[in-house]
Design brief:
The structure is a single chain. By secondary structure, the protein is an alpha/beta fold. It folds into 2 domains: 200 residues, Rossmann fold (3-Layer(aba) Sandwich), CATH 3.40.50.300; 39 residues, no CATH class. The chain has 13 helices and 5 strands. Strands 2-3-1-4-5 form a 5-stranded parallel β-sheet, with helices on both faces. The longest helix is centred in the middle third of the chain and has 15 residues. The structure holds adenosine monophosphate. Adenosine monophosphate binds next to helix 2 and helix 3.
Length: 260
Protein backbone atom coordinates (compact mmCIF):
# COMPACT_ATOMS: atom_id res chain seq x y z
CA UNK A 1 0.00 0.00 0.00
CA UNK A 2 1.41 3.37 -1.04
CA UNK A 3 -0.47 6.41 0.15
CA UNK A 4 -0.20 10.19 0.22
CA UNK A 5 -1.83 12.34 2.90
CA UNK A 6 -2.78 15.85 1.83
CA UNK A 7 -4.02 18.70 3.99
CA UNK A 8 -3.09 22.09 5.41
CA UNK A 9 -0.82 22.46 8.45
CA UNK A 10 -2.73 21.47 11.58
CA UNK A 11 -5.15 19.18 9.70
CA UNK A 12 -3.90 16.17 11.65
CA UNK A 13 -1.82 14.52 8.91
CA UNK A 14 0.93 13.43 11.30
CA UNK A 15 -1.42 11.70 13.75
CA UNK A 16 -3.38 9.96 11.01
CA UNK A 17 -0.19 8.96 9.17
CA UNK A 18 1.13 7.30 12.36
CA UNK A 19 -2.10 5.35 12.77
CA UNK A 20 -2.18 4.25 9.14
CA UNK A 21 1.47 3.17 9.27
CA UNK A 22 0.68 1.00 12.28
CA UNK A 23 -2.55 -0.43 10.85
CA UNK A 24 -1.07 -1.41 7.49
CA UNK A 25 2.45 -2.21 8.75
CA UNK A 26 3.97 0.31 6.35
CA UNK A 27 6.59 3.04 6.79
CA UNK A 28 5.58 6.61 7.58
CA UNK A 29 7.71 9.00 5.57
CA UNK A 30 7.47 12.59 6.78
CA UNK A 31 9.63 15.07 4.89
CA UNK A 32 9.04 17.58 7.72
CA UNK A 33 10.55 15.12 10.26
CA UNK A 34 13.46 14.32 7.92
CA UNK A 35 14.19 18.00 7.39
CA UNK A 36 13.97 18.77 11.13
CA UNK A 37 16.42 15.91 11.80
CA UNK A 38 18.75 17.36 9.15
CA UNK A 39 18.50 20.81 10.76
CA UNK A 40 19.21 19.33 14.22
CA UNK A 41 22.20 17.36 12.88
CA UNK A 42 23.53 20.42 11.02
CA UNK A 43 23.91 18.55 7.71
CA UNK A 44 24.32 20.55 4.46
CA UNK A 45 20.61 19.95 3.71
CA UNK A 46 19.71 21.04 7.23
CA UNK A 47 21.73 24.23 6.88
CA UNK A 48 19.96 25.00 3.60
CA UNK A 49 16.49 24.26 4.99
CA UNK A 50 16.69 25.82 8.46
CA UNK A 51 15.77 29.45 7.70
CA UNK A 52 13.27 28.52 5.00
CA UNK A 53 11.40 26.28 7.44
CA UNK A 54 11.52 28.89 10.21
CA UNK A 55 9.83 31.34 7.84
CA UNK A 56 7.11 28.79 6.96
CA UNK A 57 8.10 28.60 3.31
CA UNK A 58 8.70 25.50 1.21
CA UNK A 59 12.16 23.99 0.87
CA UNK A 60 13.18 23.87 -2.85
CA UNK A 61 11.76 20.94 -4.84
CA UNK A 62 15.13 19.35 -5.82
CA UNK A 63 16.12 19.10 -2.13
CA UNK A 64 12.99 17.28 -0.97
CA UNK A 65 12.75 15.15 -4.13
CA UNK A 66 16.31 13.92 -3.55
CA UNK A 67 15.45 13.07 0.09
CA UNK A 68 12.38 11.06 -0.94
CA UNK A 69 14.18 9.36 -3.84
CA UNK A 70 16.69 7.92 -1.35
CA UNK A 71 14.15 7.18 1.35
CA UNK A 72 11.74 5.08 -0.71
CA UNK A 73 14.63 2.78 -1.65
CA UNK A 74 15.17 1.77 1.97
CA UNK A 75 14.16 -1.70 3.17
CA UNK A 76 11.33 -0.56 5.46
CA UNK A 77 9.58 1.13 2.52
CA UNK A 78 9.50 -2.04 0.43
CA UNK A 79 6.19 -3.20 1.93
CA UNK A 80 4.63 0.20 1.27
CA UNK A 81 4.60 3.67 2.78
CA UNK A 82 2.53 6.63 3.70
CA UNK A 83 3.85 9.99 2.62
CA UNK A 84 3.13 12.74 5.13
CA UNK A 85 3.99 16.22 3.85
CA UNK A 86 5.19 15.09 0.41
CA UNK A 87 4.43 15.98 -2.34
CA UNK A 88 3.73 19.64 -1.64
CA UNK A 89 3.98 20.96 -5.20
CA UNK A 90 2.89 19.64 -8.60
CA UNK A 91 6.58 19.30 -9.57
CA UNK A 92 7.11 17.06 -6.53
CA UNK A 93 4.04 14.98 -7.46
CA UNK A 94 5.35 14.49 -10.99
CA UNK A 95 8.77 13.53 -9.65
CA UNK A 96 7.16 11.03 -7.28
CA UNK A 97 5.28 9.43 -10.16
CA UNK A 98 8.53 9.08 -12.12
CA UNK A 99 10.38 7.63 -9.11
CA UNK A 100 7.66 5.05 -8.55
CA UNK A 101 7.33 4.21 -12.25
CA UNK A 102 11.08 3.50 -12.39
CA UNK A 103 10.43 0.77 -9.81
CA UNK A 104 7.25 -0.46 -11.52
CA UNK A 105 5.10 1.01 -8.74
CA UNK A 106 2.29 3.52 -8.39
CA UNK A 107 0.29 5.23 -5.67
CA UNK A 108 -2.77 3.40 -4.36
CA UNK A 109 -4.56 6.48 -3.04
CA UNK A 110 -4.22 10.11 -2.05
CA UNK A 111 -6.25 11.07 1.01
CA UNK A 112 -7.14 14.72 1.48
CA UNK A 113 -7.98 15.71 5.05
CA UNK A 114 -10.33 18.65 4.70
CA UNK A 115 -10.61 21.18 7.53
CA UNK A 116 -11.98 24.68 8.08
CA UNK A 117 -9.02 27.04 8.02
CA UNK A 118 -10.53 29.03 10.89
CA UNK A 119 -9.76 26.28 13.40
CA UNK A 120 -6.14 25.71 12.37
CA UNK A 121 -4.63 28.45 14.55
CA UNK A 122 -6.58 27.04 17.50
CA UNK A 123 -5.35 23.53 16.81
CA UNK A 124 -1.72 24.62 16.55
CA UNK A 125 -2.04 26.59 19.81
CA UNK A 126 -3.43 23.46 21.50
CA UNK A 127 -0.57 21.39 20.05
CA UNK A 128 1.96 23.88 21.49
CA UNK A 129 0.26 23.76 24.93
CA UNK A 130 0.26 19.93 24.92
CA UNK A 131 3.92 19.74 23.87
CA UNK A 132 4.92 22.24 26.54
CA UNK A 133 2.94 20.28 29.16
CA UNK A 134 4.88 17.13 28.17
CA UNK A 135 8.13 19.09 28.42
CA UNK A 136 8.81 18.63 24.69
CA UNK A 137 10.53 21.15 22.50
CA UNK A 138 8.06 23.20 20.46
CA UNK A 139 8.59 23.36 16.68
CA UNK A 140 10.19 26.59 15.52
CA UNK A 141 7.44 27.02 12.91
CA UNK A 142 4.52 26.39 15.30
CA UNK A 143 3.89 30.07 15.90
CA UNK A 144 0.76 31.92 14.74
CA UNK A 145 2.71 34.29 12.47
CA UNK A 146 4.65 31.44 10.82
CA UNK A 147 1.46 29.38 10.53
CA UNK A 148 -0.02 32.17 8.40
CA UNK A 149 2.88 31.84 5.95
CA UNK A 150 2.58 28.03 5.96
CA UNK A 151 -1.08 28.44 5.01
CA UNK A 152 -0.15 30.82 2.20
CA UNK A 153 2.30 28.19 0.91
CA UNK A 154 -0.37 25.50 1.22
CA UNK A 155 -3.01 27.48 -0.68
CA UNK A 156 -0.64 28.62 -3.42
CA UNK A 157 1.62 25.61 -3.95
CA UNK A 158 0.05 22.51 -2.37
CA UNK A 159 -3.73 22.91 -2.84
CA UNK A 160 -3.37 22.56 -6.68
CA UNK A 161 -2.48 18.91 -5.95
CA UNK A 162 -6.13 18.30 -5.09
CA UNK A 163 -7.14 18.92 -8.72
CA UNK A 164 -4.01 17.13 -9.94
CA UNK A 165 -4.87 13.90 -8.12
CA UNK A 166 -8.59 14.26 -8.76
CA UNK A 167 -7.77 14.30 -12.47
CA UNK A 168 -5.87 11.04 -12.02
CA UNK A 169 -8.79 9.43 -10.18
CA UNK A 170 -6.66 8.90 -7.06
CA UNK A 171 -8.18 11.45 -4.67
CA UNK A 172 -10.34 10.50 -1.70
CA UNK A 173 -11.53 13.25 0.64
CA UNK A 174 -12.19 12.90 4.35
CA UNK A 175 -13.72 15.38 6.79
CA UNK A 176 -10.94 16.32 9.20
CA UNK A 177 -13.15 18.25 11.63
CA UNK A 178 -14.51 15.43 13.89
CA UNK A 179 -12.48 13.88 16.75
CA UNK A 180 -9.31 11.97 15.77
CA UNK A 181 -10.90 8.48 15.99
CA UNK A 182 -13.74 9.47 13.68
CA UNK A 183 -11.31 10.91 11.14
CA UNK A 184 -9.37 7.59 11.26
CA UNK A 185 -12.60 5.69 10.61
CA UNK A 186 -13.38 8.03 7.72
CA UNK A 187 -9.97 7.31 6.21
CA UNK A 188 -10.47 3.53 6.54
CA UNK A 189 -13.84 3.87 4.84
CA UNK A 190 -12.53 5.82 1.85
CA UNK A 191 -9.58 3.46 1.48
CA UNK A 192 -11.82 0.42 1.14
CA UNK A 193 -14.21 2.16 -1.27
CA UNK A 194 -13.38 2.30 -4.96
CA UNK A 195 -13.13 5.71 -6.62
CA UNK A 196 -15.47 6.17 -9.63
CA UNK A 197 -12.55 5.76 -12.06
CA UNK A 198 -11.41 2.53 -10.33
CA UNK A 199 -14.94 1.15 -10.46
CA UNK A 200 -15.06 2.00 -14.18
CA UNK A 201 -11.70 0.30 -14.77
CA UNK A 202 -12.90 -2.97 -13.18
CA UNK A 203 -16.65 -3.27 -13.84
CA UNK A 204 -18.63 -6.10 -12.25
CA UNK A 205 -18.22 -9.15 -14.41
CA UNK A 206 -21.11 -11.26 -15.73
CA UNK A 207 -21.50 -14.54 -13.85
CA UNK A 208 -19.62 -17.31 -15.59
CA UNK A 209 -21.24 -20.75 -15.98
CA UNK A 210 -19.40 -23.85 -14.81
CA UNK A 211 -18.68 -24.81 -18.40
CA UNK A 212 -16.84 -21.52 -18.71
CA UNK A 213 -19.47 -19.98 -20.98
CA UNK A 214 -21.01 -16.66 -19.95
CA UNK A 215 -24.75 -16.93 -19.32
CA UNK A 216 -26.81 -14.92 -21.73
CA UNK A 217 -30.26 -14.97 -23.22
CA UNK A 218 -28.88 -16.75 -26.29
CA UNK A 219 -27.28 -19.56 -24.32
CA UNK A 220 -30.07 -19.96 -21.78
CA UNK A 221 -32.06 -23.17 -21.35
CA UNK A 222 -35.23 -21.56 -22.69
CA UNK A 223 -33.73 -20.60 -26.03
CA UNK A 224 -32.22 -24.05 -26.56
CA UNK A 225 -35.72 -25.62 -26.66
CA UNK A 226 -37.13 -26.02 -30.19
CA UNK A 227 -39.00 -22.95 -31.39
CA UNK A 228 -42.25 -24.92 -31.76
CA UNK A 229 -42.14 -26.09 -28.15
CA UNK A 230 -41.41 -22.58 -26.96
CA UNK A 231 -44.34 -21.21 -28.94
CA UNK A 232 -46.67 -23.88 -27.49
CA UNK A 233 -45.99 -22.86 -23.90
CA UNK A 234 -46.01 -19.13 -24.58
CA UNK A 235 -49.12 -17.55 -22.98
CA UNK A 236 -51.61 -16.56 -25.68
CA UNK A 237 -52.40 -12.91 -26.07
CA UNK A 238 -56.07 -12.11 -26.04
CA UNK A 239 -57.28 -10.92 -29.45
CA UNK A 240 -60.05 -8.80 -28.04
CA UNK A 241 -59.04 -5.74 -26.14
CA UNK A 242 -55.49 -5.95 -27.53
CA UNK A 243 -54.16 -2.44 -27.98
CA UNK A 244 -54.30 -1.68 -31.70
CA UNK A 245 -51.69 0.15 -33.66
CA UNK A 246 -52.93 2.40 -36.49
CA UNK A 247 -51.96 -0.26 -39.02
CA UNK A 248 -53.82 -3.11 -37.30
CA UNK A 249 -56.81 -0.81 -36.72
CA UNK A 250 -56.96 -0.03 -40.47
CA UNK A 251 -56.70 -3.76 -41.31
CA UNK A 252 -59.49 -4.62 -38.88
CA UNK A 253 -61.72 -1.92 -40.37
CA UNK A 254 -61.09 -3.26 -43.90
CA UNK A 255 -61.89 -6.83 -42.76
CA UNK A 256 -65.11 -5.63 -41.12
CA UNK A 257 -66.13 -3.75 -44.31
CA UNK A 258 -65.49 -6.85 -46.45
CA UNK A 259 -67.64 -8.96 -44.10
CA UNK A 260 -70.39 -6.41 -44.75
P1 LIG B 1 5.67 19.57 8.13
O1 LIG B 1 6.28 18.93 9.33
O2 LIG B 1 5.21 18.60 7.10
O3 LIG B 1 4.61 20.57 8.50
O4 LIG B 1 6.84 20.41 7.42
C1 LIG B 1 7.51 21.44 8.09
C2 LIG B 1 8.25 22.31 7.11
O5 LIG B 1 9.22 21.53 6.40
C3 LIG B 1 7.39 22.94 6.03
O6 LIG B 1 6.77 24.13 6.46
C4 LIG B 1 8.43 23.19 4.94
O7 LIG B 1 9.23 24.31 5.23
C5 LIG B 1 9.32 21.96 5.04
N1 LIG B 1 8.82 20.87 4.20
C6 LIG B 1 8.35 19.65 4.59
N2 LIG B 1 8.00 18.91 3.56
C7 LIG B 1 8.26 19.64 2.45
C8 LIG B 1 8.08 19.43 1.06
N3 LIG B 1 7.56 18.28 0.58
N4 LIG B 1 8.42 20.43 0.22
C9 LIG B 1 8.95 21.58 0.66
N5 LIG B 1 9.12 21.86 1.96
C10 LIG B 1 8.79 20.90 2.86
Amino acid sequence: MRLVLLGPPGAGKGTQAERLAERYGIARLSTGDMLRAAVAAGTPIGLKAKDIMARGELVPDPVVIAIIADRIKEADAAKGFILDGFPRTVAQAEALERLLAQRGLKLDAVVEIKVDEGILINRIENRIAQMQARGEQVRADDKPEVLKQRLVAYRGQTAPLIDYYQGKGRLRTVDGMPPIDEVSEGISRVLTKKTPSEAKASPRRKPVRKSGRKTSRKGSKASRRPAKARKATRPKRKAAGRPKTRKTARKAARRKARRG
